[in-house]
């Protein structure tokens, strides 16, 4: 991930505009991806957000599918490294597939993923 930033709305200055912006933000139902092995999350990378889950605070990436629905996916160290390695930026298409739980050589379980990035500029 190169320049992925949190998604925010412009900051209005008067109270009515601020309330309207807050209402709009509150109606954006962002679901957290809870995949089963073999399931994929495919769509446009639109940004990231900080969130708190059962393991504490972490970053989620936000993916918008072809219907406009936005889903948040927890950003594991592997996903972060591979998004960066593939040069993923806002506007690129991504396909994340959950491969299931695997066992590390050290004997610790981890969630395995595959990742494909389709660059917006075709590079």
What's the structural blueprint in terms of helices and strands?
Blueprint: H1 15-27, E1 31-32, E2 40-53, E3 56-64, E4 70-74, H2 77-85, E5 93-103, E6 109-118
Parallel strand pairs: 1-4
Antiparallel strand pairs: 2-3, 2-5, 3-4, 5-6
Task: Tell me what you see in this structure.
With 123 residues, the protein is of the alpha+beta class. The chain has a single domain (15-118), classed as OB fold (Dihydrolipoamide Acetyltransferase, E2P) (Beta Barrel). It is built from two helices and six strands; from the N terminus they run αββββαββ. The protein has a six-stranded mixed beta sheet. It is globular.
List keywords for this structure.
123 residues, single chain, alpha+beta, 6-stranded mixed sheet
- For the record, the CATH architecture stands as Beta Barrel
Cα-atom radius of gyration: 16 Å
Count of alpha/pi helices: 2
Low-confidence region ranges:
none
**Helical residue percent band:** 10-25%
CATH topology description:
OB fold (Dihydrolipoamide Acetyltransferase, E2P)
In total, the number of domains comes to 1
Trace the largest sheet across and list its strands.
Answer: 1-4-3-2-5-6
H/E element string?
A: HEEEEHEE
Mean of all residue-level pLDDT scores: 86
CATH class descriptor name:
Mainly Beta
Beta percentage is 35-45%
Q: What separation lies between the terminal Cα atoms?
A: 15 Å
> What's the story with the biggest beta sheet?
6 strands, mixed
Secondary-structure-based class equals: alpha+beta
Shape: globular
Please count the beta strands (DSSP E, at least 2 residues each): 6
């Amino acid at each position: 991930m190169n320049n992925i930033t949190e998604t925010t709305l412009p900051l209005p200055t008067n109270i009515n505009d601020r309330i309207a912006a807050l209402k709009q933000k509150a109606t954006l139902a962002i679901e957290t991806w809870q995949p089963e092995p073999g399931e994929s999350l495919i769509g446009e990378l639109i940004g990231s957000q900080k969130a708190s889950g059962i393991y504490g605070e972490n970053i989620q990436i936000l993916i918008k599918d072809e219907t406009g629905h936005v889903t948040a996916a927890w950003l594991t160290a592997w996903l972060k490294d591979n998004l960066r390695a593939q040069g993923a930026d806002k506007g690129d298409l991504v396909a994340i597939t959950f491969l299931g739980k695997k066992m590390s050589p050290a004997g610790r379980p981890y969630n395995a993923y595959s990742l494909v990035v389709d660059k917006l500029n075709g590079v």
